[in-house]
# Entry
Amino acid sequence: MDNGIRVTIRSDMDIVTAREQGRALAEKIGFSQVERTVIATAISEIARNIVEHAQEGEVLLDHCQHGAKRGIQITARDKGPGIPDVARAMQDEYSTGKGLGLGLPGSKRLMDEFEIQSEKGQGTTVTMRKWMPL
Ligand SMILES: Nc1ncnc2c1ncn2[C@@H]1O[C@H](COP(=O)(O)OP(=O)(O)O)[C@@H](O)[C@H]1O
Ligand SMILES: [Mg+2]
# Structure
């Protein structure tokens, strides 16, 4: 990441910071008000998962480009307990905590691209992208 923003995530305040930094970057890239809110919502959910399920980690925000397409890329990573069954965690309403279990599947629906890499005991990395309409 050359020009990106890094937000350390440990508390609810950090979640707000990541969300607002993401919103500001999305505006700079040119996303509409509605799209900015969608992106901010996905960032909140993924950052919240770090606080709730891994205690600490970080969110990286950056531009991305693919041919003529421009967009925003969000990476959330932690060295927490990891997710033993990612397919299951991606199902609606599956939660090992007190959550609604909609954070991961909901964020996937809000973004254009969504990948999770996670291994039990190793931590979790979520990468999401949203592209500007051409
Ligand atoms: N960063 C993470 N580290 C470890 N486990 C996670 C992480 N993010 C999500 N999970 C697991 O995936 C499940 C589903 O996540 P999510 O859809 O956000 O639901 P919720 O957070 O409401 O439980 C969580 O209950 C948890 O078991
Ligand atoms: Mg969640």
